[in-house]
Amino acid sequence: MAYHGYLPIISKYAANVRKEKGSVKILEIGLLSGVSLFSIVSNMNILGIDNYEYTGVDIKLQEEITIFNYYTLKHENCKINLIEEDSLKFLKNCKESFDIILIDGDHNYPTVKKECEYLPQLSHKNTLFVFDDYYGKWSTNDLYYSELNDWKNIDNFSKLEKDNQKKGVRPAVDEFIKNNNLKSFTLMKGEPICLIHQDNELIVV
């Protein structure tokens, strides 16, 4: 995921959470090459956010992520957790609560729908959700990483039944918004969609 213009708003929100709670916990599903992870962490370092825990989950951790990780952290009380696991298995078993959750895993309706079902147990009323690919090619079309050459040999993908009527990221996220009384907003055309609870107490924009 590359959030482009959303990096400042994510970092600003992290700063608000840090001021309010004393620490901030971020979860990113779908790391790929780690562009967003290290961009966000760098922004937080610049802003002086000195107490955070960043958990990144991907079914296949790229080698460059594990290498760069050793050179990224600026403060001793900050931590990056890199987890190589299928997103649905991780979300199902995770018992933590996060302040910011970034979703950019498999780009198909059944996976995103299932991911969304786990998010309420991992969040609170001031959690900021950010969904990439709500717009663009995979908005209403399915992509399965298990069908791509670089991922074909991975055998621990969750097996989900395809939906003949609904495809892509957008319908799954729209259902999540409706079922959880969330407000959505975007700042730039074609960028990710952000979601917050109706009674969110932190300033977002």
Summarize the structure.
The chain is α/β, with parallel strands linked by helices and 205 residues long.
* Cα radius of gyration in angstroms: 16 Å
CATH class identity? Alpha Beta
Number of continuous helical runs? 6
Derived structural class: alpha/beta
Strands, count: 7
CATH superfamily: Vaccinia Virus protein VP39
Query: What is the domain tally?
Result: 1
Q: Give me the CATH architecture, please.
A: 3-Layer(aba) Sandwich
Task: Give the helix/strand layout.
Layout lengths: L6 H15 L2 E6 L5 H13 L4 E7 L4 H6 L10 E6 L2 H7 L6 E4 L5 H10 L9 E4 L37 H11 L2 E4 L7 E5 L8
Parallel strand pairs: 1-2, 1-4, 2-3, 4-5
Antiparallel strand pairs: 5-7, 6-7
Helix pairs in contact: 1-2, 4-5, 5-6
Describe the structure.
There is one protein chain. By secondary structure, the protein is of the alpha/beta class. It has one domain: Vaccinia Virus protein VP39 (Rossmann fold). Helix content is 30%, strand content 18%. The protein contains 6 helices and 7 strands. The protein has a 7-stranded mixed beta sheet with strand order 3-2-1-4-5-7-6. Helix 1 (7-21) packs across helix 2 (35-47) and helix 5 (109-118) runs parallel beside helix 6. The longest helix has 15 residues, at 7-21. The chain is globular, with a radius of gyration of 16 Å. The two termini are 21 Å apart. 37% of the residues are buried. The model has no long low-confidence stretch (mean pLDDT 89).
Protein traits:
single chain, 30% helix, 205 residues, alpha/beta, seven-stranded mixed sheet, 7 strands, Rossmann fold, globular
